[in-house]
Amino acid sequence: MTPRQRSAWQAGFAAQNEKLKRDGLKGRAFVRWKYQRYIRNYLRCIKGVDESVGRLLDYLKSTRAGEETVVIYSSDQGFYLGDHGWYDKRWMYDESMKMPLIVRWPG
Asked: What pLDDT sits at residue 89?
């Protein structure tokens, strides 16, 4: 990150970080807090991607470009959201072995 990006990142989490310091969570409560923050941030990211793809498809639908554009969407493998007691995607279970691929074309 550039210094400017890092500053924006820290500002975005400042209120949560201050509350965490005040609450003084320890042990399992702290682990639970970190997990919840991580997963919520991941889901916010997914929502942002979904909204952006939706805007792109809406634009294509509203213009002639939509009549002649193939849209291909793919991503890396899946992500655990608590499945098997894990989060992230570092273990060889079915959920983390699948990769999304969506193709949309005119006609």
From this structure: 78
